[in-house]
Amino acid sequence: MRRRPFLRALARIVLIVAAGLGLHAPRATAEPLPDRPIRLVVGFGAGGPTDILARTLADQLSDSLGRKVIVENRPGASGNIATQAVASAEPDGNTLLIGASPLAVNHSLFPDFPVRYGRDLTAVAALGATTNVLVVHPSLNVRTLAQFTQYVKERPGAVSYATVGVGSSSHLAGVAFDLSAGTTMVPISYRGVGETTRDVLGGHVQAYFAPVQVVLELVRAGQLVAIATTSPERTAWLPDVPTMSELGLSDFDVRLWVGLFAPAKVPAERISTIEAAVARAMTSESTKATLNAQGIAPLSLTRTAFDAFVLREIDRWRVVVAALKN
Known about the structure:
single chain, six-stranded mixed beta sheet, D-Maltodextrin-Binding Protein, domain 2, 326 residues, 11 helices, disordered N terminus, 11 strands, 2 domains, 18% strand
């Protein structure tokens, strides 16, 4: 694999993420926020899963806080444009970041990027996470991860897997699998999930680390074979499909997560006010429906636990990126 072109491309393409619920927020004395609209800054374009969640959350926060909450899309640079905009905003709690998995990956991809998590940004609330599932074409005649791994090892550099672009979740899951299993697969990029799914079904590529909701009905119909999921726990949408970790790839974890972040110097009382409002907003039926439609599971973490989770993600992707540079 050519490492430098991969890293340059990865630095340009955003991860596709989805979002969900997750926190048990503490009750704190509410501190009023400045009397102007709250901005939720999203580092991805309108219409994607992160944007859909952000707009649902904005509606619920408007009701919960009695304030106008608007969504501002600032895509580009793998989410770094939005991240920097929030980190440099006035630390009054009125400008917040809907941040996703690239926030952790970018720490290693962009070592000179001036914004650092923990110093310039702080966690407010975990929102949710989703998973991918490794599916293969039935013609491979493999049904287990062990069989798939053996199949790939017997054909180094000859087994292809579909992705929706360099740096997408489907691509990074494949990279992580190669590093964990000691295999060498070839990623094939497509413009979207429609083209990707078509070519997997047609047998033009052998495998796909697909978002669960994209291939759910195809798996149920037997048109694709589900081998394993990429999160630490089984997904409720495919409860009979084991995880990579269960099957021997220790600590394999390629979740697509999203959370809410604020400039680091926002007063703690205001952070607590927002955190509590998010906790109330995420219990609404409309938010639950949004999560379910996107195949997103709640990420049930306190703010402290979410902060620790993000730090672990930064460390984990640092190892992966370092391996790619070699």
